[in-house]
Amino acid sequence: MNIVVCVKHVPDAQGDRTFRESDNTTDRANVDGLLSELDEYAVETALQLVEADGGEVTVVTMGPDQASDAIKKALQMGADKGVHICDDALHGSDAVATSLVLAKAIEKLGPVDLVVTGMASTDGTMGVVPAMLAERLGLPQVTFASEISVADGAVTIRRDGDAGSQTIRSGLPALVSVTDQINEPRYPSFKGIMAAKKKPVESWTLADVGVGPDEVGLGAAWTTVSSFAARPPRGAGTIVSDDGTGADQLVAFLSERKFV
Question: Model-level pTM?
Answer without folding.
Answer: 0.86
